[in-house]
Amino acid sequence: MATSVSYPIAKFRFKVKWEGLSKENEIGFTEVTGLDYQIDVIEYRDGTDPNLSKRKLPGMRKFSNVTLKRGVFKGLRDFYDWIDGGDAASDKSVVKRKDYRRTVTITLMDEAATEVVSWTLQNAIPIKVQFSDMKADGNEISIDTMELAHEGLTVSYI
């Protein structure tokens, strides 16, 4: 009798896409962190409530910033054009930047490259870019980091 064994999905195969990113310039990342949110608790007790404890009600959701890390490649500008404003780089006004807020999708895949889970960030904006430090006697890959703030996170099991 054959039995089907199911294993948890490994976290090393994933892709990141955002609006405005062309397929031929798709960017790979080495690490994605911050895919979480929490719900604040509202404590409430009415003066006539016979219980001697407060009720706990769900409140506002809070989303963590998402951090993307990638190696530095010659000629790839999409990563930096987003925070710099792209074509609107001469006008640093956030209000006048076209397509500044974007939908970002992070997708986890299994070993066969089948999409399993995706996380979608709504209205994501880059808030920080950290360039790699340099060391004359170092032997590491140059890694740049971009931090994104967003207004919502949805999870889809495919």
From TrEMBL:
Q: Name one Pfam family in it.
A: Phage_T4_gp19
Q: Which NCBIfam families match?
A: conserved hypothetical phage tail region protein
Please report the name of this protein according to its UniProt entry: Phage tail-like protein
